[in-house]
Amino acid sequence: MAKIETAKKAPEKDPRSGLSHDAIRxxxxxxxxxxxxxxxDKMRNFLRFVVxxxxxxxxxRLKGYTIATRVFARGEDFDAAQDPIVRIQxxxxxxxxxxxxxxxxxxxxxxxxIPKGRYIPYFSPQTAPDRRRSDASTGPGERLxxxxxxxxxxxxxxxxxxxxxxxxxxxGLVEDLATELSRFQDIAVISCQRKPTTGALPxxxxxxxxxxxxxxxxxxxxxxxxxxxxxxMQLIDAATGKQVWADxxxxxINASCLIETQERIAQSVVAAIAxxxxxxxxxxxxxxxxxxxxxxxxxxxxxxxxxxxTAPTPESAAVCFxxxxxxxxxxxxxxPVWSALATLYCQMYTFDVPGFDHALETALEYSRKGVFLExxxxxxxxxxAYASYLAxxxxxxxxxAETALNLNxxxxxxVGAIGYFHVMRGEIDRGLPLLDRAIAMNPxxxxxxxxxxxxDHLCASDYERALADTLKHHPFMSFWDDVxxxxxxxxxxxxxxxxxxxxxxxKEKPDFVPRAHELLR
Length: 521
What we know:
Layout: H1 21-33, H2 41-55, H3 64-70, H4 85-103, E1 110-113, E2 122-125, E3 151-154, E4 158-159, H5 167-182, E5 188-191, H6 205-212, E6 216-224, E7 228-237, E8 242-252, H7 258-274, H8 279-288, H9 298-310, H10 314-330, H11 335-350, H12 359-373, H13 378-390, H14 394-407, H15 412-424, H16 428-441, H17 451-459, H18 463-473, H19 480-491, H20 495-508, H21 512-520
Parallel strand pairs: 3-5, 3-6, 4-6
Antiparallel strand pairs: 1-2, 6-7, 7-8
Helix pairs in contact: 1-2, 2-4, 4-5, 5-7, 8-9, 9-10, 10-11, 11-12, 11-13, 12-13, 13-14, 13-15, 15-16, 15-17, 17-18, 18-19, 19-20
């Protein structure tokens, strides 16, 4: 009699990442049993609980109350306003996970994260070598595999007071710097917190950079008096040995706020040096300008993309297209390149550029491809939110915008762009605080961020302020600048001043009048 084989049940998969439940559980066990995952038993129970609930399809139940009663044995009368146990433990768990991936899990197949602001875990595949992190335990005789972008070595901070109690602050600050830097996914982080086992590291920054494989070296000092702690940070370009940036931070000493102080300093330092318009990007961008667009490396192509976003023009768009298409040909599996290309198609749609008949459809296709290839890319999530906004897909916009912000709430460009999108959707109370935060984090922001404030003035019928801000910043590009100025001047009764803008508009965009409703919508 023939043997009848029972069909095997297909392995369950996480719908967003496509990863099997078995693989995710193996990664969870790898983390929980690793000596570099420095967490308490309660934090380990916390992590296992939220992962298993997500895999069981009960992510919607992962609220503070559920976790407090199921993990931390709180009673049914639990009140998060009175008992912040879940919020505090979630912050510690995030830092433990970030540290694990920084020092040990950079080559693990799966990345597990719990984005800030929620308790639902996030799973994504990690490619090897991982582009976001480098092993912090690398010895001085080993070279790291080069990442797609620059690498930054974080040196131990010098304790000028020689106070053993201050060591906890300096070590914690270095860990926070590494955590914040790792959020910028094209930058490889090398933490030199531990002493090398094969001899002292050289003092010469050029030699140090060569040995540990770092293009930039972040170093600093800490000193304190009875009332104040002062941190001075410096960024050295290891290619030349020259200091390219420095800043000082002074904060009152308050034992209950030391961790918060560390986090604020780390966020400020990293925003200044590692953001899309920070000192590292500006320095490397200046170096790449001597190359032709097709010769640019992938990271250099992305730098050109960010330069283009500052003030888009047809010329900068053409350079970006060439550079990004070449990068996509070299690295077709690198999601951020497709996301950047999607941005260009969004702009072709917004500026109604001839020759791009299906620009929005292409933008949606490329932005989805970028997220599929790299689900953990903040740029990818932000651009999919942009394309969804243009396509009037409200649900997708909200989901992707929230995910992008959670991936890195300290990226000035992403925070500002999403704030801008919210304002353009009429959600001014949501958008303006994000724009305020983005501009405060890094003054080197795109001029079009200012459009959010102009829209706010227009909604309040304050045409004088709207006109003044527009003339100062010119945040509206292409023919939209003339549309905005003509409208504001007309509202103010200054028709003669509006006429040149109308004439230029009808010359540059002859079909604007019959298509005005379509284009303005």
